[in-house]
Amino acid sequence: MWRRVASLSSSISSSFLAQTASRLNTWESLTTGIAQQAKGVIAPKEKTPFITFVLGGPGSGKGTQCIKIVETFGFAHLSAGDLLRREIASKSADGAMILNTIKEGKIVPSQVTVKLIQKEMELSDNHKFLIDGFPRTEENRVSFERIIGVEPNVVLFFDCPEEEMVKRVLNRNEGRVDDNLETIKKRLTVFQALSLPVINYYSERGKLYTIKAIGTEDEIFEQVRPIFAAFETVG
Ligand SMILES: Nc1ncnc2c1ncn2[C@@H]1O[C@H](COP(=O)(O)OP(=O)(O)O)[C@@H](O)[C@H]1O
Ligand SMILES: Nc1ccn([C@@H]2O[C@H](COP(=O)(O)OP(=O)(O)O)[C@@H](O)[C@H]2O)c(=O)n1
Ligand SMILES: [Mg+2]
């Protein structure tokens, strides 16, 4: 069960040994370790994780479509932005730094974000994850691979014209500190410079599914649905 793996992996990750191991290790070596102990107390993991990264500029509709994917295909939704905002709200040690970074439209150091994602994955009973708004930089991508030790199965890219993204963000009305014209301009520059290379990386590896993110929410979901339906068929 995922939770068993999780508790195993959290106890491991607190030790230096395991941190070193997790750098070198891949997911397989973790599961091999568990399999070796399966005869004893720890059961083998039932299912390998299925990971989807959800990418796209600010306001491209990632969060909106993730809700539909969760409803239809039963994924766990992990929004990197929501996890970071939760850290701010909980007044954690990194909260002030995260708030300033978000206000500036910049990217929070990967180690912080990956740790939050890792914790959520470990706590989840699900094995299908939608990781929304991550990786936004090459550093994010490499850090996830190093710390979590897995690669995504699917990468969705919501491709939306800038003027539409700006319009949507300015109308979002969620009281976010970064939903203003000044920050959105910075975020679009960061998206072009740092996030597009990640999208290209996955395109070159044949993992990228590009969605034309214009139209109604339902119209857009009709492009998304067959991608996951195909994976369900495969099993
Ligand atoms: N297809 C769409 N057409 C118009 N507005 C949309 C569409 N999809 C989402 N929105 C709205 O645009 C805003 C940004 O959407 P959101 O899902 O938060 O995007 P992201 O997570 O990519 O920033 C929200 O207010 C949302 O309700
Ligand atoms: N991988 C990530 C994701 C978000 N963030 C920060 O959180 C902000 C909001 O991210 P978000 O995913 O909630 O934003 P939207 O694209 O949904 O508008 C980003 O502009 C970054 O400042 C980050 O630093 N690293
Ligand atoms: Mg979002």
How many separate helices?
Answer: 11
Cα end-to-end separation: 18 Å
Low-confidence stretches: 1-44
- Percentage of residues in strands: 5-15%
Helical content band = 55-70%
CATH class of the largest domain: Alpha Beta
Largest sheet: 5 strands, parallel
Catalytic activity: dCMP + ATP = dCDP + ADP; UMP + ATP = UDP + ADP; CMP + ATP = CDP + ADP
Cofactor: Mg(2+)
Protein name: UMP-CMP kinase
Pfam families: ADK (PF00406)
Task: Describe what this molecule looks like in 3D.
This protein is an alpha/beta fold. It has two domains: 46 residues, no CATH class; 185 residues, 3-Layer(aba) Sandwich (Rossmann fold), CATH 3.40.50.300. A five-stranded parallel sheet has the order 2-3-1-4-5, sandwiched between helices. α5 packs across α6. It starts with a helix and ends with a helix. Bound molecules: adenosine-5'-diphosphate, cytidine-5'-diphosphate and magnesium ion. Cytidine-5'-diphosphate (CDP) binds next to α4, α5 and α6. This is UMP-CMP kinase. One of its GO terms (cellular component) is nucleus. It is found in: Cytoplasm; Nucleus.
Question: In a few lines, what is going on in this structure?
Answer:
The protein has 235 residues and is α/β, with parallel strands linked by helices. The protein is built from eleven helices and five strands; from the N terminus they run αααβαβαααβαβααβα. It is globular.
